From TrEMBL:
This is Inactive carboxypeptidase-like protein X2. GO terms for molecular function: metallocarboxypeptidase activity; zinc ion binding. It is found in: Secreted. Residues 302-625 form the Peptidase M14 domain. Belongs to the peptidase M14 family. One of its GO terms (cellular component) is extracellular region. It holds the Pfam family Peptidase_M14. One of its GO terms (biological process) is proteolysis. May be involved in cell-cell interactions. InterPro entries: CarboxyPept-like_regulatory, CARBOXYPEPT_ZN_1, FA58C, Galactose-bd-like_sf, Peptidase_M14, Peptidase_M14_domain. Residues 41-115 are annotated as: Disordered. Residues 1-27 form the signal peptide.
Amino acid sequence: MTRQRLSLLTPLALLGLLMGLADLGSAGEDEDYYMQELLTREQHNQVQVPEKPVASTPDRREHPTKKVPKGKAGNGRQTGKSTADAKPVKKGNKKAEKSALKTPNSISEGDGQYNSIKEECPPMGLETVKIDDFQLHASTTKRYGLGAHRGRLNIQAGLYEDDLYDGAWCAGRDDPLQWFEVDARRLTKFTGVITQGRSSLWSSDWVTSYKVMVSNDSHTWITLKNGSEDLIFTGNREKEIPVRNIFPAPVVGRYIRVNPLSWFQSGSICMRVEILGCPMPDPNNYYHRRNEVITTDDLDFRHHSYKEMRQLMKVVNDMCPNITRIYNIGKSHSGLKLYAIEISDNPGEHEVGEPEFRYTAGSHGNEVLGRELLLLLMQFMCLEYLSGNQRIRRLVEETRIHLLPSINPDGYEKAFEMGSELSGWSLGRWNGDGIDIHHNFPDLNSILWEGEAKKWIPRKMFNHHVPIPQWYLSRNASVAVETRALIAWMEKMPFVLGGNIQGGELVVTFPYDKTRSQGVAREQTPTPDDHVFRWLAFSYASTHRLMTTVNQRVCHTEDFAKEDGTINGASWHTAAGSMNDFSFLHTNCFELSMFVGCDKFPHESELPEEWENNRESLLVFMEQVHRGIKGVVRDLQGRGIANAIISVEGISHDIRTASDGDYWRLLNPGEYSVRVKAEGYSLMSKKCAVGYEMGATRCNFIIRRTNLSRIKEIMGKFNKQPIRLPVRQLQVRRSGERRLGR
């Protein structure tokens, strides 16, 4: 099959592009080539398809396979004639179509032959937004918010209807002449289609059967055949569960169309789509070269089951036994251990003055990219440490790092069983007991804010280390076993900074996650450390390959790039009892959430690129644990004082020293008045300056006992009884008093 070079855009083509952008999709069927002037090529050889493929079987896992009978498409409806009698989509060149059908029963590519055997390529990238909006076209659209650019698998709608961000492509007319088109911008071997209905709280719309057509020039279209008849694919039975149809044999072309034939009888033609396709070799294709991301890291880029994850962690531990340790923090609802790996130059022990950092992932089991990123990170750090990478060696030697890749292994196994494209938007999100782990922590915000309103701080309660209410600790409370394990882990380790990796968006969120005003769904609710949190969030987002890119397409409904890829959690959507808020209010740890991709469960082939997107961000964020001040609080004898309160003037949030008296306080550059107080010791304060260079400023304190505490200590030794001196000491004391005239 010959290939032609991409022709240059002419001024006329650019004018056509602007006209196409102005057209919001109300064009008639004769205007279905409105984007043809964009990126035109010389006409390729006609697309080749198998002469007699067998009928395709849909793969929806949840539902049994059912072929749509001739003349009747499921429980759908259509306007005018039945499906069997419906007119086919208008063809542009009958002679060329007839010629194209006279092909062998196989498709050739170079020296190879594609026979009538089902093959499956990875997703082209509608869900991951690798396919941009200009590559998606449709016959008609109901309105801009339901345009072709919204016809992406798993895209989510806004809370309200009729806005710019609805949850599917919906045709402007309900008839079997409508179509949804993808321009691959290069010859592509298409192997299948995945469909969903419309994401909506208020509407029920989905397509129950459809045909597929391919083209090389968007004028001449060839319909996939079942013998001499058009091949009809079974669509969806409801709007959320994805349905996959693999073609009987691959077809090669540049354009592919999905042509709905029937739809839910109480709804309209609405679809969310993913196309399975492999790009054909074409070194002259500019768009492929521009978007191509290649990693040089030799890592295990694949999805891992629970057993495979455990084995991989063991391999890393065997490769780097001197800097790694595997342990578990508890068990899941079904009894799977929650494994973590520690990376440090002295694994297994806390070193005085060395901060502790954590990454967690998989609190929502279906958001699996974070899990794989942490597995890749532990491999990368081990290999780079062994190769002498000074940056990694410095991190390992100066930080105690904990990586917990799977908080919710039960949910992950459900999603993993279905696969990356068929798990949908929510399967596996909750744990085995149906609980959302990330939002299962006690609501300490309300307790703190009530104390502030009643002016109890600092007389009756502290502005930090807010205690967990007793009702939450009871056995009957709706608390996941995974949540209890996390809380015990967070209380045991003196974590300073943490990040929990999630999916489904491209943004970094920081506390508070709950709005302060009751009944308000979205409201800016900053913490006293808002400036520090904003810097921490920006440190990750700004070094991510996509988060702050101004031309990055919106994943669903929010354009976070306008805020530099970061947002206060409560100003996005309120959520009580989040892991981030709990960590900040109950421990010393500043916790943020990293949403690292539009696709919660990307295909395995996407993992190398996702690693490149996030690798630098993962390292930079870890290094922020060394920003601010650090030190040790000791008494006159040099003993570390645990539980001493570290206060910074002007910031109404304190932290406490660890068991050895060491502390770490994250701060932005500047000069601060820092005060230390501990029960039984005198108050002490000093000025501490934080510079712009990386590395925390050392700020140690030596405090002395108060007279009152020394008296109490002495009386405690005698069980609070009057101190009885020996007779000899008493006589000496009385004689001394007589000499002094007493």
